[in-house]
Amino acid sequence: MTLKRKIRVGLVLLLLFGSLGLYLSFKRNSSFIASKVLDYSGQVDKNEKLGMYHGESFSVPLSVFDVAPKRVLGLANDTNKWIEVDLSDQKVYAWDGNNLFLSSLVSTGLPWWPTPTGQFDIWIKLRATRMEGGEGKYYYNLPNVPYTMFFYNDEVPKYRGFSLHGAYWHNDFGKVHSHGCVNLPIPVAEQLYYWANPILSEGKNLVYASPENTGTRVVIHD
Fold first, then answer.
1. How far is CA 18 from CA 10, 13, 15, 22, 138, in A?
2. Which of 212, 22, 204, 29 is nearest to 116 (CA)?
3. pLDDT of 71-102, one tens digit each?
4. Which of 41, 76, 79, 115 has the highest CB neighbour number within 10 Å of its CB?
5. pLDDT for position 199
6. 201: which DSSP letter?
7. Alpha-carbon distance 218 to 191, whole Å?
8. Which domains does the chain have, with CATH numbers?
9. CA geometry: angle at 43 spanning 129 and 195, to 5°?
10. Quick one: CA torsion of 106, 115, 78, 206, rounded to 10 degrees?
11. DSSP character string of 11-60
12. Could you give the CA distance from residue 131 to residue 152 in angstroms, rounded to a whole number?
C-alpha cells in the first residue's frame, strides 16, 4: 500500500470513528443530569457570595439578596398562563392566554447538554437554591441561584434537574450557554417567578405544585 493510500485510509477511519464517538457521546448525554440540587429550602444564604462556573469564580450580585418580593399584577390562579421557550431564537415568552406578559432573550443548553423539547409542568419554585454539576473544567457550583422553577414530564423526570432560573455568572443571553437549564436575566426571572404557578404564599420561599395549586405549563421547541 502506498503512503498516499495509507494516509487516505487513515483519514477515512478517523472520520468514521470520530463520528461514532460523537454519536455515542450524544447517546450518553441523552439522559444527563442538568443540575444536582443541593438545597431545597428556598432560603437565600447571605454568607454564600461566590459561585464557581467552568473554572471561574463569580460574585453573587446584591440584587439576589433582596428578599422583599415584588408582586406581579394579574390573576395568580389563572390556568391560561403558559411559558414558551424558543430554542432557535433563544427567547422566552410568557403568555396569559393569547396575551403576551413578557418576552426576553435566554441562554439554553449547549449542544452536548441540550435543553429538552416538549411540554412540561413546573413542579417546584424556589426563591434561591444551590446547584452543582459538570465535571473537570466544566464543573460548576453555584449558590443562591435566584428565582428557580423546575419543570418535568414523563420523559424528563424531576431528578434530572431542568429549570428556568436567573443567572448571575454570565450575561451571554441570546446564545446557548448552559448545562441544559433555561438561563434568564435576573429581573426577568423574578417577574416570571412571581407570575407563574404554583401560587407562592406570602412570606414563603418555596412551593410545590399540587392538584389544588398546579404548575404553569412550559412549552419548549426548536
1. 12, 8, 5, 6, 22
2. 29
3. 554 445 567 999 999 999 999 999 999 999 99
4. 115
5. 94
6. P
7. 16
8. 32-221 (2.40.440.10)
9. 75
10. -90
11. HHHHHHHHHHHHHHHHHHGGG--S-EE---S----TT--EEEETTEEEEP
12. 17
Provide the grid cell at 53: 462556573
Q: Please list the active-site residues.
A: 165, 181
Q: Is the pLDDT of residue 128 over 80?
A: yes
Burial 63-98 (b: 16+ CB within 10 A, else e): ebeeeeeeebeeebeeeebbbbbbbeebbbbbbeee
Q: Is the predicted pLDDT of residue 6 greater than 60, yes or no?
A: no
Q: What are the φ and ψ backbone dihedral angles of 66, each rounded to 5 degrees?
A: -75, 105
Verdict on whether the full-model pTM lies above 0.90: no
CA distances from 29 to 109, 133, 185 (A): 12, 13, 26
C-alpha cell belonging to residue 183: 438561563
Query: What CA–CA distance (Å, rounded) separates 117 from 119?
Result: 7
Q: Looking up cell 426548536, which residue turns up?
A: 222
Spatial distance between the Cα atoms of 206 and 198, rounded to a whole number of angstroms: 10
User: Do the Cβ atoms of 119 and 218 come closer than 8 Å?
Assistant: yes
Which one has a higher pLDDT value, 180 or 79?
Answer: 180
Pull the grid cell for residue 152. 418535568
